[in-house]
Amino acid sequence: METFSKTPRLATAVLWAASPDEAMLVEHLVGIGRRDAKKRTAHFLLELGARLKLVGLGSTQGYACPLSQYLLADALGLSAVHVNRVLREDGLATFQNGQVEIHDLDGLMRLADFDKSYLDHDGPLLR
């Protein structure tokens, strides 16, 4: 604490660096508690894609995803059968053979009510 009181800019940078993690945690809790299966799945696929895109491993068209449908379902609190049905219903995205393909990014974002601003890691103090 003494270091932070002597260097308030460092304290601000540390708090700022921790805030995206808190924002992601809140977003996940909201996802499990308030989103239906379709919105939850869409949001997860979009968030994973956005995070992979930040590190150069994804694009707006899709990305490699080593998760099985069972692991994806478990992460979302759903059954694998339900996840498969949800993905096929609207044709917005597909998840097969370790690959997520996004067929309608705008439609998927509308469905999930996705706002990627909570994933922003480019803060002014870390530039």
TrEMBL record:
It comes from the Bacteria. GO terms for molecular function: DNA binding. Residues 35-106 form the HTH crp-type domain. GO terms for biological process: regulation of DNA-templated transcription. This is HTH crp-type domain-containing protein. It comes from Aureimonas glaciei.
